[in-house]
Amino acid sequence: MSKLKIFLADLTHTYKAVSNPFMPYAVGLIASYAKKVFGNKIEIKIFKYPEKLYQALNNEHCDVLGCSTYVWNSNLAHWAIRTAKRKNPKIFTVLGGPDFPKDKDQKLEYFKKYDYVDIRVLLEGEVAFSNIIKLILEHGLNDKNKILENKIEGCAFINKNKTELIECYSERIQLLDTIPSPYTTGLMDEFFDGKLIPVIQTTRGCPFSCNFCVESDKYYSKIKSFQTQYAIDELDYIGKKISKTPEVKTLQIADSNYGMYKRDKLISEKILELQKDYNWPQGILVSTGKHFGNVIETTEMLMDTFDFSMSVQSMDHDVLDSIGRKNISPEKYKEAGEMLRKKGRSTLSETIVPLPKETLKSFFKGMMELMDWKVSRIITNTTMFLHGTVYKDKKYIKQFDFKTKFRLLPAQFGIYGGEKILEFEEVGVSTNTMNFEEYLETRKFSFLVEMLYNSRIFRELEYFLEDYKLEYNQFVLFAYEQLNKSHPDIKKVMNSLVKQSVHELKDDENSLIKYYSNEDNFKKVMCGEEGGNVKFYHKALLLSKYKDVWLDFVFKCLGNFLKKNNIEIKEEFNDIEVFTKCKFDGVLDLNRTHVQINNSFNYDIINWLNQEHRTRPLKEFKNKERVRMRFTYNANQILERNTLFSEFKENDAFSATNILDRIRPQHKLYRKFELIEDKIAV
What we know:
There is one protein chain. This protein is an alpha/beta fold. It has 25 helices and 20 strands. Strands 2-1-3-4-5-6-7 form a seven-stranded mixed beta sheet, sandwiched between helices. A three-stranded parallel beta sheet has the order 8-11-12, with helices on one face. Helix 1 crosses helix 5 (about 125-140) and helix 17 (about 490-505) runs antiparallel to helix 20.
């Protein structure tokens, strides 16, 4: 008997750039487990890029195609399944991943709508998928009804009469180490191609029950762990491989609460070894744990490799209660944030709007508090209505009078096999406590927080205001209130931000599909005029086309803010303005990369910025004579800029948006500075 040929895919859109640049680790685990169970009875190939899968479906025989579905690749996975069915009607098609309804009636409608999907894997995929393969090997593919006549543990499908949903949930995998590593078994070798970020997972599950999260399901409430040595062996293997692709600088740890468990310290120690041996990873994408004692101790070892997650979602206790977050208080976050700041750690907090019981007033109050805590970055997300969450429950929607719209996911689109494929999401835009106009105001203020506050983008302004005992968050609020009095170009950008925030929203899925089926509208998406990240698009505009006007606005606001507080503008103000503008020179202009900027200053800004305890104001750092400073991009910055600007070749807003999104941390965007004579580097 010939081997059963299986294709497994975790696809990413690839138009202009790889939009989801992570190795297909989840399907790799499924593949490694299946190979362990069935050995030479099966042959498995793993795919990440849709073009390669399309080519393989055209040129090779395939018996089973399985695809992971997430909100960012669901339609791409469906395209792959449809394509496979057209070419081979006998192929057995399987979908997995969280993008699947929780409600039984919705599941039934799903299978009626997508009749090319033979079966859905529910929750964990390794054992469930192997259950499917076992039945296929027993019965063959000539009579699918034989395979689908009885319940399959861990799977859901529709009966042959299309009238009844048949589903059976499986028990959790208790010993995760029974799943061979897709890295150490060589299954992931081809994905060390210089484009994709390695992914590991050390735990599964989450003890918290946040309503907006797919892991709020009771199924995932208990934590299951891979053995520490399992993760260390994977990291060892990855480190040796990644050394040959130095352009990849990042690692993703796909845990929900990394650092919360004592053994995570050992994993962090291993990462430190890799950083020493291979200069990798330089950045880690991870969601840190919410019990801060162990987390702080564990993650401080890695310092600024990643931002410590302080994702409060809301600062209002009633709101937190309504979304299942009452067990994590803002006060605990504040305590942890203060401790981390003293240790020199970067922090990240995410908020979500609109949430149940959140008002515009409570949102602003919360944002001001987070800035007062000096959280390094504050990201505001629009509420997503994900399958598998309480948010898709009609009773929950009715209780808080949620109004939802549909919009494209940024950069998640392309043309594959001649078909236009777009990904979209359902989002909340109003509740019974926050109307749509108020939601738009949260977008405007969040954008200004991104432009003025995040990653201490204007650290020198923050310190300058501290010299005068003024709070930086009050300055951000003041600038927000001055937007209506700003330069016409600034007004144009802000009006465009609001207009695009409205325009991107469609009433329902059909309206969105109809709109983008229009060839002219689809072309707008392909060239970046529509469908991108609205926040980063307008950030790119302000930092490129309108950079000078933007910086003039910032310093006009600063001057007026000082006057409002009865502080006379002094000559150090001018030094700060010149310093900042030199720092920003050429930020999104590749042609300015090698241009050296020199300027002279009355004050020793470098030593003022580098004070450990911030006890002396800038006015005490006046030089006896003006000193010259040099502003340049260092070698690492030049390399990264060249790489990104070559990846996004076109000089347009789409490319600039993606460049901004890829450069982390944000301060890497700006020129480094030093005294010319003394060469005191910062």
